[in-house]
Every structure is written in structure tokens, then in C-alpha cells.
Amino acid sequence: MGNRLAGKVAIVTGAARGMGEAEARLFVAEGARVVLCDLLDEAGEKVAAELGDDAMYLHHDVSDEDSWTLVVEATTERFGVPTVLVNNAGIARYQTIDQMPKEMLAHLAANVVGPWLGIKAVFGPMRHADVGSIINVGSTNSFRGAPGASAYATSKHALAGLRRFPRRTACCDRRLPVEGRSPRMDNRDDKFECMRGQEWS
């Protein structure tokens, strides 16, 4: 397709299907080498195999810090230092607030703590390499809400705030671009044509 991402090494979470799969396919098509991460091993391995030598699949729980360490190590060993992180993985469960006593913590673990751990894991390597881009996939629910989405909307609103941290942290003498994307889709399993034409750096 092109070479806008030639030389980039990307980690994409939640890449076994849906939007994460579309992101991984687009990145490879644009010249990047991509590490697809997910809990859905069969689907993730299938996508990576279809993408060829420029892709690799890793089983990964985004809420586990040790898992992030292994992902960064494996990425560096196979493709080099990661220069792009796409925090795409997340959960969305719609229930009324009285039906979800444990759902809030589950949403925060996957949708907020996971991306935070991801940023923490790649921050050092990106800073040392003096190059990097972090993309947090948000949701329009973060600012408008939806029936039954109190946990999901809260977590995505927190994620929107998280993207401001790496830009302004006092320990960073080189600012890494951290962007939030909030795509709106009628069908999560389509090929996400809206991704095409986005400016990725």
C-alpha cells in the first residue's frame, strides 16, 4: 500500500480481531513491523501468520506488568526497540450500575491500568531511542455516555486524561507524542475503513 511507517516497530494490543486487527494490518501494509498482542491466541496467531515475516503474535494480558516486560523484550529481540504503541485492548460490558459490582474494577484494569502499564513499559526504550509514538484508543462514550455504560464510560474518560501524562511528566526531557483516537463504528468487526487516511507518526 505504502511506506508511511517504514522502519517503525509497533506493538498493538487487542490485535486478534476487530479494530486492533485492522490497525495491525494497516501498519504492516504501510511498512511497519508489528507485534500483535491479545488473549485470543488462535485468532491472533492466524492474523500474524497472514501478515508474514513483518508480524509476530504474543499472548498478553495488558493488566499484568510482568507480561508487558516480556512483550517489550520479545519485540526488541525480534524487530528492535518499539517505536509505536497502540493501546487498543479493552472491554465494554453494558449493565445497569446495580448489576455490576465487580465490573468497574475489571474495566479499570483493562481500559486504564493496562494502557498505563504499556506506556510505562515502552517509555524508557522510546526515550533512550529518542523516538516514539503512543496511541490510546478511546471512545465517544468518554464524553457522552450511554445507557448501561457507567463502568466503560468512566474508564475511557480516565484514559483520555492519561494521554496527557507522558507529554508533561517532569522526568521526561524529550516529549513523546501521545494521541487519543475515538473512532465511532456501526460494526466492530468491519475492516475499519476510517483508519485509512489517518496521519500516523
Q: What does this protein look like?
A:
The chain has 7 helices and 6 strands, in the order E-H-E-H-E-H-E-H-E-H-H-H-E. The protein is α/β, with parallel strands linked by helices. Helix 1 (18-29) links the parallel strand 1 and strand 2. Helix 3 (65-78) packs parallel to helix 4 and helix 4 (103-129) runs parallel beside helix 6. The chain is globular. Mean pLDDT is 82; it is low at 184-201.
Which CATH C-level class is it? Alpha Beta
* Mean residue pLDDT: 82
Give the number of helices: 7
Give, in spatial order, the strands making up the sheet with the most strands: 3-2-1-4-5-6
What is shown here, in short?
This protein is of the alpha/beta class.
Secondary structure layout plus pairing:
Layout: E1 9-13, H1 18-29, E2 33-38, H2 41-51, E3 55-59, H3 65-78, E4 84-87, H4 103-129, E5 133-137, H5 141-144, H6 150-162, H7 165-168, E6 178-181
Parallel strand pairs: 1-2, 1-4, 2-3, 4-5, 5-6
Helix pairs in contact: 3-4, 4-6
List its traits.
201 residues; alpha/beta; Rossmann fold; 14% strand; disordered C terminus
